[in-house]
Design goal:
Elements: H1 2-14, H2 27-45, H3 55-61, H4 63-78, H5 91-97, H6 102-125, H7 130-149, H8 151-162
Length: about 180
C-alpha cells in the first residue's frame, strides 16, 4: 500500500489540475491496474474475522467509479451494445459537456467521491446496520442512473447553474443529445 500511495502522490504532483496540462499519462493499463489494486485492497480489508471495515463501507469508499461503471454497462446492454464498448456517456462527460473545465470536473468528482466515502465511514462508525447502508448505496445508484438516463436534461440544468462561460473558458467540447453524449 505504501508503494501504491507513493506512486499516486507522485502522479498527482505532476498532474495537478491547476498546474496546467498533465505531464504524465496513466492510460488504460494504468487505470485498470489502479482499479484492480484498490479493489483487491478493499476486498482484503473487508473480509474475514480481522476485517477493519464492513463490505458495504468498501462499496461507499469506491462508490463513484463502481456506480458509474454499473450504470453505464447496464445502459449499454439495454441499448443492445456490448457492456465493454466505449462511449462518452460517463458522468464526467456530462460535466464537461455542461461547460465545466477539466479542472472543475475533477474537483466536482473528487468532492462527490469524498462525500460518498465520508457517508460510508460515518455509517460504519455510527453503527448503522449494513443492510441500511447498502439500501442507501442502492438509492445513490438509482439517483445516478436517473441522472445518466436523462443526460440531456442534466446537462441543461448544470449548464444553467454554471451561467455564461468566463472569457477564455471552454463551453464544453462534447455534445449531448437525447441519445447520449458524443
Amino acid at each position: 500500500m505504501a508503494c501504491l500511495i507513493t506512486v499516486l502522490v507522485a502522479f498527482f504532483v505532476f498532474n495537478h489540475p491547476f498546474r496546467g496540462p498533465a505531464r504524465i499519462f496513466m492510460g488504460d493499463a494504468g487505470s485498470l491496474f489502479l482499479g484492480f489494486a484498490l479493489s483487491w485492497v478493499f476486498i482484503q480489508y473487508s473480509q474475514g474475522e480481522a476485517r477493519i471495515l464492513a463490505p458495504v463501507t468498501a462499496l461507499w469508499l469506491l462508490a463513484l467509479p463502481i456506480i458509474d461503471t454499473l450504470v453505464i454497462m447496464a445502459r449499454r446492454i439495454h441499448k443492445g451494445r456490448s457492456p465493454l464498448s466505449g462511449d462518452r456517456e460517463h458522468f464526467h462527460h456530462i460535466l464537461l459537456a455542461a461547460g465545466f473545465s477539466p479542472a472543475q470536473t475533477l474537483v466536482a468528482m473528487v468532492l462527490m467521491a469524498v462525500l460518498a466515502a465520508t457517508i460510508g465511514v460515518a455509517g460504519q462508525l455510527a453503527g448503522i446496520p449494513e443492510h441500511l447502508m447498502f439500501l442507501g448505496f442502492l438509492v445513490l445508484l438509482g439517483l445516478h442512473a436517473a441522472i445518466i438516463s436523462h443526460a440531456w436534461k442534466t446537462r441543461r440544468w448544470l449548464h444553467g447553474m454554471m451561467g455564461p462561460p468566463h472569457p477564455g473558458q471552454s463551453t464544453g467540447r462534447h455534445k449531448i443529445s437525447e441519445v447520449g453524449v458524443y
